Prior knowledge:
By secondary structure, the chain is of the alpha/beta class. It is 43% helix and 19% strand. The protein is built from 14 helices and twelve strands. Strand 8 (281-287) and strand 9 form a beta hairpin. Helix 1 (15-29) packs parallel to helix 8 and helix 4 packs antiparallel against helix 5 (157-174). The radius of gyration is 23 Å and the shape is flat.
Amino acid sequence: MGFKCGIVGLPNVGKSTLFNALTQTAAAQAANYPFCTIEPNVGEVAVPDPRLDALAAIAGSKQIIPTRLTFVDIAGLVRGASKGEGLGNQFLANIRECDAIAHVVRCFEDGDVTHVEGGVDPIRDIETIDTELMLADLESLEKRVVALEKKAKGGDKEAKETLDIMNRCLVLLREGKPARSLNVKAEERTLFNTLGLLSSKPVLYVCNVEEAAAQRGNANSELVAKRAAEEKAVSVVVSAKIESEIAVLPAEEQKDYLEAVDLEEPGLNRVIRAGYDLLHLITYFTVGPKEARAWTIENGTRAPQAAGVIHTDFEKGFIRAETIAYADYVALKGEAGARDAGRLRLEGKEYLVADGDVMHFRFNN
Length: 365
């Protein structure tokens, strides 16, 4: 179950530096975790979760396998990308394949690094990329709406429903508002997602600041945080320069480096967790002597579908799920203690898996 976050940004904002730090982190993890494949523009990284280590310690697990999130490096967008400028069509297609956007915004001053627009202005930069995504969506919908109107007039129910959503999106886009600001009902969500609109993707703003501002941010990152709050989006402050230096250090030296720059953890950890939260993902665990493993599911997933993430047979033959809340597993020192205390529950097909559940699935072969 792959979840992709596309990294976008104007040229010279630190996007490539940040992505390279991610891929170096992923490469370093490859020695410890299986299934860590790296492609030139893809970095698959472990989602930091101290709960997994705690569970493994209690169960005496030989192996720890975290859940993962994929970041895709999308070459720098420029003004006019929606019309094909700077290979814009290719880049926009790459965004379409992602589940969310991590928008790297330049929030640092540096006379040696030229800004493509002539000066540092994070809100202008955000609006430049937003505009290109919205223009591409506007063109896409206007091309499709004519054919759909014919189907709707012919009595096609799905065409009518899709046309209604399209027209509501067009109103917003023509007002300069992204498709993600549309009020979509739960029953419309699937149809809305099939439109594949670029500006419908949830956005994580990554504020790239100078080294001295890595902990608390600066005036520019505050502007972005305010903008994110207005959009109900998320913003994270990082120094791409610091992250690139941390990523190449051995694990034992990283802690000393972080202390020296007054940081509790790498900024990349915050980016990864924020991307995970942005996609409304949660984690459940399977734990035993062989391995402690984290699994990614969307919030609101029922037990059989959660089991299907491990193997389709688990979903098809689902009987019930033995479930222990993370806090109970830790407090009662494992499965046996939770069972003796009556804290191990048997959950059926309608159970909505909670973040942190420790689960064992019973199923028919």
